[in-house]
Design brief:
Shape: globular
Mean pLDDT: 89
Distance between the termini: 55 Å
Low-confidence stretches: 1-45, 67-77
Oligomer: single chain
Helix content: 10-25%
Radius of gyration: 23 Å
Structural class: mainly beta
Number of helices: 6
């Protein structure tokens, strides 16, 4: 196995003449940003900073250096965006269960996988694999065992035939316990066919697909560069150990896995060539949109020549007509409205144990500390779909989500590295369905002349039949080499008819003014259920890459 041992907390990899002090300063500045944004008293901030510093192994001198650094910097706050304002209503249907961790355990979850014996394995940013027992209990008091250490940011974890397959910065490693003493003792390289030279070069790994393949999504060296082999690419690792280049043009992936139909997708962050965060289809041979990684096409003969470089500034809909390999965003998450740094995702296949959202994708957001739902569909050979608010108010920045066999959604992550709403560290939380049925938009599907909107409970037939119960607007983003984009090219489609199904669970909307390539932003503030309840969330966002053919 390649060397990948983490001798210090990950902050020590940040540059500077004194790495630990520099890292402490960055951590302190992030916490200061959060304090100002939340208007917390300085004394609360100071106690939290000192406790966090000591817990993470920083010295008192490093802490005082950080405080001096703060004293010399302006009091600024990065605007994270408004909350949905729905946490109290959400709690009636999906409660947050805090999972207490044993004394001495510090956990920054980067990946999860359930084991056959019921334990939860956690891959951490600190390079460990921890085995957690008792996490699914009604009142959890888990025990934690360290199975492996010395890896480098385990952001992908799978289990097969008695072995872990850990994706970390430098490779995919098969990890086993050959003498059954409960500790890893064999580390075999499965694939290391990519480069690594910068702390920000993350590697995200999938679970196994039906054919036994693993997928790795590789972040760029920085937002604008690809300095190491295949940085900004997705790779497929076959059961016989071959590494196959799959797609180019990735920027900063934070999750990779199957959608509800078994196709491989990844989540992309807002930034250069990405106007907003999105869910993208890893179409074999596809170009995901960021051209800086074209330099590695000579090392991927199976991919053919590099695509035509997209124009900047432009629009995705325009450039996908020019660049045949360009894969449009399947689902756009409007910035701040629906996340700022979307992360890991997993399909709910709990068999109804998690409420009405079976076979839907649940995706976390690091910055806003929330979880959203996603549905996708294939239209004219192109993937597209919608995202929906689900649950806010989680305690930390979400990097990993996972459904247990009991149908509970485990969430975890970290509060360091970037601004984050959930300020707690060392947090593991669980979302449990209370058994009550929420009134929600279940999903949205495109039709040649509009949409079908389905609901979890019957709608009030009179309100639902009124076209003015549905407010629609559309917009897109600038496709450009610059960082991000505002919403542009706004239009206002008109709902001309709303036809309510006999069971009240769906409404067929006839819409004049559909715009291909735009996000269609739904707002249903006046709609109610048949028993008078408003929806828990009255917004949804559908990315219309293709208008279905009649």
């Amino acid at each position: 196995m390649k060397p990948g041992f983490t001798l210090f907390p990950k902050e020590s990899h940040v540059g500077g003449s004194c790495p630990m002090s520099r890292a402490m300063m960055l951590n302190a500045r992030t916490q200061k940003t959060q304090r100002v944004a939340k208007k917390e008293p300085f004394s609360v901030f100071l106690r939290a900073l000192c406790a966090s510093a000591l817990r993470r192994g920083f010295s008192l001198s490093a802490t005082f250096s950080a405080l001096a650094f703060l004293a010399a910097t302006p009091a600024f706050a990065q605007e994270l965006g408004d909350t949905w304002g729905t946490a109290e209503r959400e709690a009636a249907y999906y409660r947050i269960v805090n999972v207490p961790l044993p004394e001495g355990v510090y956990l920054e979850a980067g990946s999860f996988v359930s084991l056959p014996d019921g334990r939860l394995a956690v891959g951490t940013r600190r390079g460990e694999i921890l085995l957690v027992s008792g996490i699914t209990d009604e009142h959890p008091r888990p025990t934690v065992q360290r199975f492996a250490s010395g890896l480098d940011e385990v952001l992908g974890l799978a289990w097969r035939d008695g072995a872990f397959y850990a994706t970390h910065a430098t490779e995919v490693t098969r990890i086993t316990d050959s003498n059954a003493d409960g500790r890893a003792d064999r580390f075999d390289t499965v694939s290391d066919k990519w480069g690594f030279g910068h702390y920000h070069e993350f590697a995200l790994g999938s679970k196994f697909d039906a054919k036994g393949n693993l997928y790795v999504a590789l972040g760029l060296s920085e937002s604008y560069n690809s300095k190491e082999l295949f940085r900004g690419w997705a790779l497929k690792i076959t059961p016989d150990g071959k590494t196959v280049p799959l797609c180019s043009g990735l920027r900063s992936p934070l999750g990779v896995g199957e959608n509800e139909h078994g196709e491989m997708f990844y989540v992309e962050s807002q930034g250069p060539w990405n106007g907003s965060c999105s869910l993208k289809h890893l179409k074999p041979g596809g170009f995901m949109g960021h051209p800086i990684s074209f330099n590695w096409y000579p090392f991927a003969p199976n991919m053919g020549p590099a695509p035509v470089k997209p124009n900047s500034p432009s629009r995705m809909e325009t450039e996908r007509q020019r660049v045949k390999e360009l894969v449009p965003y399947a689902v756009v998450f409007p910035y701040k409205k629906m996340g700022r740094s979307i992360s890991a995702f997993e399909v709910n296949r709990s068999g109804g144990k998690f409420g009405p959202f079976e076979n839907q994708i649940f995706v976390g957001d690091y910055t806003l500390s929330n979880v959203m739902r996603v549905t996708t569909e294939l239209v004219n050979g192109v993937w597209q779909g919608a995202c929906y608010p689900f649950r806010e108010g989680l305690g930390t920045g979400i990097l990993a989500v996972h459904f247990t066999p009991r149908g509970q959604l485990i969430t975890g992550g970290t509060n360091r590295g970037w601004p984050v709403r959930g300020m707690k560290d060392n947090v593991l939380q669980r979302l449990d369905w209370t058994g009550r049925m929420p009134f929600e938009i279940l999903d949205i599907r495109a039709r040649p002349d509009g949409f079908v909107v389905r609901f979890t409970r019957p709608v009030d037939p009179k309100l639902a039949a009124r076209p003015d119960s549905y407010a629609l607007q559309t917009y897109t983003h600038i496709y450009q080499g610059g960082y991000g984009s505002p919403e542009v090219d706004h239009t206002r489609p008109t709902v001309t008819a709303a036809e309510v199904a006999a069971d009240g669970l769906s409404v067929r909307l006839r819409v004049q003014g559909l715009v291909q390539g735009h996000v269609h932003d739904f707002h249903l503030p006046s709609l109610k259920s048949s028993d008078g309840a408003p929806p828990v969330h009255d917004r949804a966002y559908y990315t219309l890459n293709e208008i279905p053919k009649p």
